[in-house]
Amino acid sequence: MSAASATAVGACISRPNCTSLSHVPIWRSSSLRPQPSLTDIFFKIPCGFSKRSSVLTGFRRLSPVMQWQDCTVKTEIDVPISVAYNCYSDREAIPQWMPFISTVKVLEDKPDLSRWSLKYRAFGRDIEFSWLARNMQPIPNQKIHWRSMEGLPNRGAVRFYPKGPASCIVELTVSYEVPAILAPVASALQPFTEGLLGRGLERFATFAKSYKSDSTV
């Protein structure tokens, strides 16, 4: 505070009728900084901080939400709808006909849960993922559906439509979050996956016929 300001304050205090200090200069610090907004608090995470940085320069924005893709394929199968449904319900047999699924293990104490592993070479690299899936309440001879609980985020459904007394149509829909490692080829991933699923259903059509023979022995 300057000597003139101190004199003015003292003079005002010494006069009983003086009730305002509006004429006294207000001291402002150039070191004060604005506080971060709620947007900065909730949408930024710490990634380092230094004494020379401002309040917000030690933060970076969260990465964007990963893209989801949906794939749907269907095929006609020359077995009764009940046989196709029972065959597809045998989750541990799926690696025998789905080209990119390497193992499926149903948990003994919780049969609605199963552990899946995927191994396939594509886009110039070996791709491996795993997840824990929960089978939701099925509709016999109509629908099987699931969603992942951990690991690779995915969900899907298999629907069965009668075509005749000895044939049916099987429709498979799979939705998945594009893994970060495959984000650069996301535009090519969806048609590629649909091709794999389509070939899997073709193999399933053959597998279901042998499954029918085994089940009738």
From TrEMBL:
It comes from the Eukaryota. SUPFAM superfamilies: Bet v1-like. Residues 77-204 form the Coenzyme Q-binding protein COQ10 START domain. This is Coenzyme Q-binding protein COQ10 START domain-containing protein. It comes from Rubus argutus (Southern blackberry).
